[in-house]
Each structure stands twice: as C-alpha cells, then as structure tokens.
Amino acid sequence: MTESVIVKNVYKKYKMHTKPTEKLLDLILPGGYGEDFYALQDISFTAKQGDVVGLVGVNGSGKSTLSNIIAGVIPPTTGTVETVGQTSIIAISSGLNNQLTGRENIELKCLMLGFKKKEIQAMEPEIIEFADIGKFIDQPVKKYSSGMKSRLGFAISVTVNPDILIVDEALSVGDQVFAQKSKNKMFEFKEKGKTIFFVSHSMGQIKEFCETAIWLEYGEIKQYGPVPEVIPQYEKFLKKYKSMSNEEQKKFREKVMQKQRGLATI
Ligand SMILES: Nc1ncnc2c1ncn2[C@@H]1O[C@H](COP(=O)(O)OP(=O)(O)OP(=O)(O)O)[C@@H](O)[C@H]1O
After folding, report:
1. 74 alpha carbon to ligand 1 midpoint, in Å?
2. Where is the ABC transporter domain (predicted)?
3. With 70 as the cut, is the pLDDT of residue 89 above it?
4. Longest dimension (CA), the chain
5. Contact at 8 Å (CB) between 14 and 76?
6. What's the pLDDT band for 129 if we cut at 50, 70, 90?
7. I need a labelling partner for 149 at 20 to 30 A (CA). Which of 13, 99, 139, 177 fits?
8. Would you say 25 and 60 are in contact if contact means Cβ atoms under 8 Å apart?
C-alpha cells in the first residue's frame, strides 16, 4: 500500500520558564531566556494509506504536539513531515478561532483548505447538523464549552472528507450520543481506507479502532508496532506508573526530562 505520512527525525523544542521574569524577558528577546526543553525528540515513522494509528502515552508525552505537527498546525524545530498524494489533513479541536463564531470558523477553516465559496455553502448545513450545538453556532467560540468546540471541530473535520484525519481526544468530551455518532463516522472513514491518527487515553478505544500504535514516552518513541504488541506493554507500564507515589512519578518524569534537555544534539 502507498505511503501516506512520512515523519523523519522530528524534534520540537520549547522554552521552559521556571521564573515569571524569564517568560517576560523571552517575549522581548525570543529564545534568549529559559531552558531548552524537547517536547519531541528524533521522531521517525511511516504510516501507509489506510493505517489507523493510535497515539498513546501519559500526560505531557507529546501526543498533541506530534498530532499538530503532522497536521501542519505547528512546525517542527527540525526534521520533516511528508504527506504523499494527499490533499488535506484535519486535526480536530485545533485551529478554531476563539473570536469568531462557529459559522465563521466553518467558513474560515474550509477556505483555508482550499474550498470555494459555493462548496462551503453546500457543506455548511451538514456541518451544523452534525455538530448539533443549536444557537451557539452564531456565538463566538470563546463562549463554547470544550465539548461544543470538539463537536464543531469534529463536524468540520469529517464533513470536508480529508484523506488523513487526526482525532485528538475528541471522543472523551461530549455526551454518549455524540460519541457514538463520532465513532460511527470514524469507522466509516476506516472502511474507506483513509489514514487516521487517533489520540486517546482509553485503551479500549485504541484496541477497538487501531491496528498500529505509537507509544510516546516524554517526547520519544518508546514502541511502534501492531496494537496487540504495543498496548499490553504500555498497559503494563501504566500499571506500574499509576502505582508510583507522586514523588516517584515526579522523579521518573525528571529523569526523562533531563534526557530531553541534555541529550538532544541539534
Ligand atoms: N506551546 C508550548 N510551549 C511550551 N511547552 C509546551 C507547549 N505545548 C506543549 N508543551 C509541552 O510539551 C510537552 C508535550 O505536551 P503535549 O500536549 O504534546 O503532551 P500530550 O501527550 O498531548 O499530553 P496530554 O495527554 O496531557 O494531552 C509537555 O511537557 C507540555 O508542557
């Protein structure tokens, strides 16, 4: 099958500010203050057309950062992301403008994806019906609950019929009815052979949807392979991680983060 997404040696560097003054000074002289910190380190993998890839990892391991980089919402610090023969990548719950209304966001997002005004007018009712947020569609997104944002993001994403879909925790917010509707849509996409990246903390959902999984551990790929190989290992780790005291979890995180600060060679 054709390669769909090729990620090569991707690093994402952020500044970690430990003092409020550092943050302020860094705004004046960007990059000059604070400690370098790697949210992603040397990420390389290939996904083929039709792959449904689960992204797993504990909080702060880099799942959203990687999703946003694949989606082109944020650039990598170094490294490349190539998408082969595809037209659009959508990441749910990213890219909504808080100042604009839901309806304006639909128009803006579709325009940015290259749709013509007439095409957008034709898609708009379907998006609004799927989102099902009533009169809120004409309210600024800043007034939305996280569930409403997710509904609108999901509705836009699936209606524009992308070749690559990135679903970041969309099923964890919102009610049962919407979650079921979203699930059905994702299965429909899967059946059509689209490439899907699915971020979730629910191993049940990962096992239900995905064939392959990427386990991120504080910015690095710990394991990438078939779900029946990766997820049991990750669950074993999670059990151990959850049984740690807060102090032990902190030490574990610090150990990995020391590596993130120190070992990157870019
Ligand atoms: N804009 C930013 N500036 C600085 N640090 C950031 C930024 N965005 C993310 N980070 C840091 O990068 C790391 C990875 O964050 P990310 O949101 O990708 O993790 P995640 O695996 O999606 O976490 P969660 O499961 O909690 O959603 C975290 O330590 C986070 O604090």
Report:
1. 13
2. 22-243
3. no
4. 57
5. no
6. very high
7. 13
8. no
CB of 195 shorter than 6 A to ligand 1 = no
Given CA atoms 206, 63, 226, 260 in this order, what sign does their dihedral have? negative
The structure tokens listed for 206 are 């990962």
Q: Tell me the two tokens of residue 155.
A: 């509705």
For 135-189, what is each residue's pLDDT tens digit? 999 999 999 988 888 889 889 988 988 888 888 876 666 678 888 888 888 889 8
Report ipTM for this prediction: 0.97
Compute CA 7 distance to the chain's CA centroid, rounded to the nearest angstrom: 15
Say which amino acid occupies 62: G
Residue nearest to ligand 1 atom 17, measured at CA? 64
